[in-house]
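Need tokens for this chain, all 183 residues.
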Amino acid sequence: MIWIVGMVALGDGDSDPGTQDERHPGGEAAFQRQETRYYEFVYRTSQKVDAKALIAAADSICEAVAWALQCPPLDIRIVADLGGESREGVLGDARWTKIRIPLERALGDSTVRAVLAHETAHVYVEKLSKGAMAKHWASTRFAHEGLATFVEHQLYPAGLEELRRYAAAIEVKDPVPFDLLSD
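Here are the structure tokens for all 183 residues:
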């Protein structure tokens, strides 16, 4: 009993106000949670430095997405899971009001900010359409992804020229049939 009280009293010695540390039984990693005006972030304690850098910029990113979409900021708090996993080759994923961005796949501060902007744009699209876009995913996928990509590149244009050259090379070498891209 004394050991448990001692462990609780010691903590990690690096707690921030508004940050909650969640320790899980069975040897799982400790998680922390932090809320901002527009987001609720969950991340592994081991990711604290990278998470804090993104969290510090997050509300301005959300407001920039609203500006790019010419709408007011959302009246909800978006849950952003930075410690989870996503599909192979995916830097982020958004579902209604939840975002998953595995920080271990992030390729630097500007990339993770661009991914947050992109995934936040998906949340805006879903919220503004009251879920209609997701209900008709097969026919709205291009609009959904195109709008999120447009917002991302409006806010973070670095690398856009490289992507354009890559797309042009693919088109010249081996064009992708339209029916392969659609359902």
